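Justification of resources, computational component.

The compute hours requested in this renewal are based largely on the per-chain cost of generating structure records like the one below. Each record pairs the submitted sequence with a full C-alpha cell output. That output is archived, and it is also reused by downstream analysis tasks.
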Amino acid sequence: MGGTKIIAFIAATLALAGCSGSQAGGTLRVGSKNFTEQVVLGEIVAQHLEHRLHQKVDRKLNLGGTLLAHQALLAGEIDLYPEYTGTALVAVLKEPIQTDPAAVLGLVRSEYASRFHVAWLDSLGINNGFAMVVRGDNKYLKTLTDTTQDARPWVLGVGYEFEQRVDGLKALQKTYSLRPTQIKTMDLGLLYQALEGGQVNMIAANATDGLLSKLNVKVLEDDKHAFPPYELCIAAREARMSTVPGLRAALAELSGKFNDRKMQELNYQVDGRHRPVAEVAAEFLQSTEGLK
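The structure output for this chain reads:
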C-alpha cells in the first residue's frame, strides 16, 4: 500500500471511529417542536439530564412541526423529544383514531419500536388534547353536541395543523354536524385574542394552554370522542437509551411528575408573564418532589 493510500486509509478509519464514538457516547441532544409547551418541556428535560448525568446537553428546541421533529429524531440530529400519543398515532403512523389512552400508547410504543427503533417512556402525566373553546358567557353550552343545536353562525379560529390534520378539523366535522360559516386560520398565539375580540366565537385550542385558567372562557366537552388522547411522553432513540449510562432511569424520573393544570401554569409563566424558559424550567425542577 502506497503512502498516499495509507494516509487515506488511516483518515477513513479515524472518521469511522469518530462516528462510532458519537453514536455510543457524545453530547446528548434534546429537541422540541416550535411552541411554548414543547420548548418548556424540552428545557426541563435538558436541565434534568444535566443534573442527573453530570454532562452538558445540547438543546435543539423550536425545531418546527411534528414531521420535522420526527425526521430529526430518525436522522440522529436529536436523541429525544416530547411527543403526543394521538399525534404519533394519526400524523406519523397514519393509524385510525382510537380513544382508549392505554391502547393508543401501547400501539404507538410497539410501532415506533419496530419501525423506527424509538422507545416511548411512560406518560409525563399530561393529556394535551384539542380543546374547543368558547367565551365563558355562553352559559348554556357544555358539550360540542350543544353547539350543533345552536342556530348562531359559528366562526371558528384554528391553527394551521388543526386545519390540515385528520385528527383535527376533519375529525371534528366527521363526528359532529357542526359546519362553521367561516374558518379563520392563524398562529396559535392569536387564537385567544381573536376570541376575546369577537373576530371568532369558537377556537381550536389545547387543553394545557396557559390562558385557559386566566380568561373567562370554557372548554366544551368532546362528548362523542372526536379526538384521540394526546398523552405526552418522551420519545427517544433506542441506540442512545442503551449506550448512555443512566439515561433511561433519569428520563423515567419525569414520568407522572406533571398534570394538565401544572402545564397550564408553566405555559402561562412563559406566554403570559414573559419569563425566561430556562428560569421557569429550573424553578419547576427545584419545586418538584423527586427531581431536586
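The chain has two domains: 25-127+229-287, 130-220. The CA atoms of residues 155 and 277 lie 33 Å apart.
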